[in-house]
NACHT-NTPase and P-loop NTPases N-terminal domain-containing protein
Amino acid sequence: MDVIILHNPIKDITAALKVAIEICNSATDTQSVPVPLQTLSSQLPWALAAFDKVREGIPTIHPTSPDALALESIIKGCVKESRSLKAYLRGLIPQAELSRLDGCIRFSGLGATVDMVVELKDGLFSDLKTLADNRAIEAEARENIKALVGFATGEPGFDLWGVSDSD
């Protein structure tokens, strides 16, 4: 399974998420958060699964193996979810600023290597941590984002449900 074929849809998914996060981060109060966080959050498990499966599967899986077919199915699901998010963002962003979404997608087109996929993922987590610190975002949503990042990265302090590991 070719890393470039896998990298391109993941690049697009990541770019859409990054633009959504950037818009949320520019908000100054809860009313000015333009992207529903549930829309953003619904994309994250898809993106994380794709990143992890690509990293695990390159370059060891045979294109017709059950693992490769399962990976292809995950990527297709990610692309579908990403298209929904991008369509939502295109309706949300003023026409004059649409180039920001397209520019972000082009800029994310780094060299198609496993290291670059991991770099995209790490950048996404960094952006999410910034989003979780934005006081304009509702406290519960901030905690949910922190918990998801903590669970996915293995950082101490949170599990998937936002419960402190020390409890």
Summary: Helices lie at 3-25, 37-57, 66-92, 98-107, 114-132, 139-153.
